Amino acid sequence: MKKLFIPALFLLFSQLFAQGLKIALPADESSVPFAYAIEDCEAFSAAPCEYEIYDDRSVMLSSLLKGESDLALLNTEDAAKVYSMTHGKIKVLALVQNARPCIISTAGRLSSVRDLKGKKILCSGHDATDEKVLRFILDKNEIFVASNPVSADLDFSVPASQVVSQLLAAEAEYALMSESFAASALRKSSSLSIALDLKDDYSALTEQNIPRMLLVVNTASMNQKTDIIEKYLEFYSGELKKAYENPARLSVLCKKYLSGFSPAVISELILHGSFVCIRASEAEKQIDGYLKACSPFSFPAESDVLPDDGFYY
């Protein structure tokens, strides 16, 4: 865990601000655009801000539920589970990242998802967003998940770090990847290409994007700091705009505050518009649709913990 305090002036007067804001971020791609917000934190005049970067998501979640953090980034499934299991201790403030899972291959473009019948697909993230989306799309195309000529075989035996080498060695023909992993893979070898963009298939079936990451708020914090949190959401929306306008600068700031993200991957994420800032009230239909569509493909199925309307701020 890494703490990033706001510099200079606000620190001198932090004791005067009983309503400071603490933001918990995971050390992964979803936090990328927040690098601008961290850099420009003195421009947020409503309250002093403190950012903490967590390598361990469970520790980050504990901080949020204890009220040690006011805001945090959670993936959509986790946010729904936590809301249900804690009887409403968190709420969704905004949708901040859409997913763009891809099927990567050395065999070129597939004409449709039906071409995956009888194929083995390497999947490195069991029960992750990308896998659930793939299972949903396969199901809608009447393709079962099994190892036989008329089904799709999802193989979880290969670690993420070895997927590209398996493809290049012809040990496997297809792999499921998130947009950031796909961006890195395509730059490693010209032999690899996107065989299917599952975002397109999902959108064709649902008329929605895939909501990967949510900015959630501790409900008690929301009740105590409503005005500050509302202003922070406006502030972040402006910082996100800067990220899109200057991805090169964003890369520099990610190296400064987050580390571990190549400029190429950041450019790819920005290029495809993965990052958004859509208020919960406007994103509710998209999030609800995703949870209802993909919860039957969770292990165990999560249909019984779908959140009610109180999930959305």
Describe the structure.
The chain has 13 helices and twelve strands. It has 313 residues and is α/β, with parallel strands linked by helices. The chain has a seven-stranded mixed β-sheet with strand order 1-3-2-4-11-5-12, with helices on both faces. Helix 5 (129-140) links the parallel strand 7 (120-123) and strand 8 (153-155).
Structural key phrases:
single chain; 313 residues; alpha/beta; seven-stranded mixed sheet; 21% strand; globular
Can you give me a brief rundown of this structure?
By secondary structure, the chain is an alpha/beta fold. It contains 13 helices and twelve strands.
Give the SSE layout.
Elements (H helix, E strand, L loop, with lengths): L1 E4 L3 H4 L8 E6 L7 H6 L9 E6 L2 H9 L5 E5 H10 L4 E10 L2 E4 L14 E4 L5 H12 L12 E3 L7 H6 L5 E4 L1 H10 L4 E5 H9 L3 E9 H6 L1 H20 L1 H11 L5 H9 L3 E5 H15 L19
Parallel strand pairs: 2-3, 2-4, 7-8, 7-9
Antiparallel strand pairs: 1-3, 4-11, 5-11, 5-12, 6-9, 6-10
